[in-house]
Inverse folding.
């Protein structure tokens, strides 16, 4: 062999090898599984997928309108009314239940129910929401969580309407209340209570990401600790027990509690309140704690550690006090559990898990199973197959005032939601 041609030959071999390795590791784009082959060959499904792709721009504009309607937890009514109109215009029979959930029904051949659900509420109680544009990127609290999920409910309902086909199972499109914080999943609890006898699958749409699927529900408890005392003047009543000092002692002790890495667990003191002025001994102080764990027993241990810290911190403050305060009053404690989110897990052999994998294979997407606390917690805790997935696009800054969303990749996310839904709801022949 001519030595002058050796480098070129070696380069060719190297390129061929790298290409082969890439093909082995690449996603199986456009290679539907046996389960999805018939579904994805149906002209009606292809039309629905095409409609979603063509509507990405309009869907993003609708997302902006939804996001700019304030919907803090417990105050979702205005946004709910807007979603009710959108779902009704998409051809659904729409009703609002007694807790504020908006439910649009698309009847199927059977009474069995597949539920698509996206939460209406946002984490910020008193924030004026205006969406700011910077190129394709949209900035606003709640723009992704959960403007993305809500607009996807509407987009999928419209695509099914335009494609004009019947599903085997009834599909419910639900915009629910109280998913965030102290809402304690009250909307999803009500939906599960109402439809439990018919509910076969739940798909929660939450956020944008398509690179993971929530298949395990993260258990959590939210607790509020309130300490009350006599109060007084910072100078003349110095030495009286101080609720803020007691709260500080409690928190300092609790944050040193051991937390296992496996099962993963966490705690967070997220709010502290108390006092009226810098020169007054406060009459009360309170703080709120978020406890989470992949294990219910570990979650119980965290709550026990918090209760022990409360007892110890208050006792320490009383011991340090020079007096019992005005009228000889000691400190009193109220330990209130604000919310309990149960855990649960989607079985490995669930048809819902298989539908996600088949849709990912068809679209060339790769995703992994993850653990989180979402609307899926409630059905999973009841043994009802459920997942939580994102609806496509890029995002960051969730639960912050700097939250942003970019619709790049939205089309794939929308089609993924549609295919997973049809994969479990079933398509009736023409």
């Amino acid at each position: 062999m001519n030595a002058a041609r050796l480098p070129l030959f070696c380069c060719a071999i190297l390129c061929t090898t790298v290409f082969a390795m890439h093909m082995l590791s690449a996603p199986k784009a456009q290679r539907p599984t046996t389960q999805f082959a018939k579904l994805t060959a149906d002209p009606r499904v292809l039309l629905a997928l095409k409609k979603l792709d063509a509507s990405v721009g309009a869907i993003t504009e609708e997302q902006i309108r939804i996001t700019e309607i304030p919907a803090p937890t417990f105050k979702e009514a205005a946004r709910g009314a807007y979603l009710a109109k959108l779902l009704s215009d998409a051809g659904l029979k729409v009703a609002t239940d007694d807790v504020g959930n908006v439910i649009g029904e698309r009847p199927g051949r059977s009474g069995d129910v597949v539920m698509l659900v996206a939460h209406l509420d946002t984490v910020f109680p008193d924030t004026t929401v205006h969406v700011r544009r910077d190129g394709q990127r949209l900035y606003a609290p709640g723009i992704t969580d959960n403007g993305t999920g809500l607009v996807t409910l509407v987009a999928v309902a419209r695509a099914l309407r335009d494609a004009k086909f019947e599903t085997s199972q009834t599909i419910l499109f639900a915009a629910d209340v109280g998913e965030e914080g102290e809402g304690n999943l009250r909307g999803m609890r009500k939906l599960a209570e109402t439809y439990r006898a018919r509910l076969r699958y739940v798909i929660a749409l939450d956020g944008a990401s398509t690179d993971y699927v929530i298949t395990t529900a993260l258990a959590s408890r939210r607790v509020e600790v309130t300490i009350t005392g006599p109060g007084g003047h910072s100078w003349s009543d110095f030495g009286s027990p101080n609720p803020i000092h007691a709260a500080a002692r409690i928190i300092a002790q609790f944050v040193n509690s051991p937390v296992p890495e496996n099962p993963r667990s966490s705690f967070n003191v997220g709010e502290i309140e108390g006092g009226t002025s810098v020169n007054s001994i406060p009459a009360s102080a309170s703080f709120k704690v978020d406890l989470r764990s992949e294990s219910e027993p570990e979650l119980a241990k965290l709550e026990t550690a918090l209760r022990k810290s409360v007892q110890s911190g208050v006792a320490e403050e009383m011991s340090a006090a020079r007096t019992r305060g005005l009228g000889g009053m000691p400190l009193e404690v109220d330990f209130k559990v604000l919310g309990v989110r149960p855990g649960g897990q989607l079985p490995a052999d669930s048809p819902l898990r298989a539908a996600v994998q088949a849709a990912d294979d068809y679209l060339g997407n790769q995703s992994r199973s993850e653990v989180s606390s979402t609307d899926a917690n409630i059905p999973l805790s009841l043994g009802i197959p459920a997942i939580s997935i994102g609806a496509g696009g890029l995002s960051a800054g969730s639960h912050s005032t700097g939250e942003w969303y970019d619709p790049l990749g939205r089309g794939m996310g929308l089609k993924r939601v549609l295919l997973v839904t049809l994969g479990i709801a079933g398509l009736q022949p023409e």
